[in-house]
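hey
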């Protein structure tokens, strides 16, 4: 039994779908019932807190907050054995997990992408839509460096964290390798048959000054989690999904 606090976003929707496929009962705190009442009623073994105001590494956009983390932790404390999985960004300072809150696991995500991502500010979505429509995207220098991680790999990390016998850790969720924005855009251009060379430097830099955030695999190894999808494969799957999605809308 799992409660999701933000099931409508990219990650929340992917988690909800996968958990349902596995036969896990999923309850959503956004369905109108207050979180405390819902948690007392269903007594989940895990509360997955996807929306914690995380800054998207690439777009700089802040995810909306459904519940504050402190509120979620207070609710979980009233359900014996319930653990909390909180979401953070690799670009944020690494948090310290209070030993008194051993039921809290923090997953620090790299630059997540993949099928189902519809945020117009997300780099892959924005660039893909413009390439597929024949437009020329406005891009900065493209020198920003990020640890790109495919959505299915991220979901698997959450599944393993919900089942791990020893919660209370900080886990980096990424490939442990970095690619620049220019690398990703160039791959997308090739996959979409973009004939005109991609031009970088047409808009102010938003990401180039940030230090590269590379996942430390130590925490992931404790979950027996390893990412499997290389950006070339993940982007190809995303391009196929985006093409089909656009064709359905047209």
């Amino acid at each position: 039994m799992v409660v999701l606090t933000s099931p409508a976003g990219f990650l929340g929707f992917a988690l909800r779908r996968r958990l349902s496929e596995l036969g896990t009962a999923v309850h959503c705190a956004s369905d109108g019932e207050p979180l405390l009442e819902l948690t007392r009623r269903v007594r989940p073994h895990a509360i997955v807190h996807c929306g914690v105001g995380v800054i998207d590494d690439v777009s700089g956009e802040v995810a909306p907050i459904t519940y504050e983390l402190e509120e979620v932790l207070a609710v979980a404390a009233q359900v014996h054995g319930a653990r909390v999985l909180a979401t953070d960004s690799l670009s944020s300072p690494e948090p310290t997990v209070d030993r008194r809150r051993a039921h809290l696991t923090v997953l620090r995500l790299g630059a997540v992408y993949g099928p189902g991502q519809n945020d117009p500010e997300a780099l892959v979505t924005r660039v893909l839509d413009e390439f597929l429509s024949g437009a020329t995207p406005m891009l900065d220098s493209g020198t920003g460096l990020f640890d790109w991680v495919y959505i299915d790999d991220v979901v698997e990390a959450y599944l393993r964290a919900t089942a791990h016998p020893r919660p209370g850790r900080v886990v980096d969720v990424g490939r442990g390798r970095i690619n620049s924005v220019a690398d990703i855009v160039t791959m997308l251009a090739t996959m979409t048959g973009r004939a005109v060379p991609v031009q970088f430097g047409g808009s102010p830099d938003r990401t180039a000054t940030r230090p590269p955030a590379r996942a430390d695999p130590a925490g992931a190894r404790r979950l027996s989690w390893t990412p499997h999808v290389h950006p070339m494969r993940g982007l190809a799957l995303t391009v196929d999904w985006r093409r089909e999605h656009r064709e359905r809308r047209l």
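The radius of gyration is 19 Å. The first strand starts at residue 2 and ends at 4.
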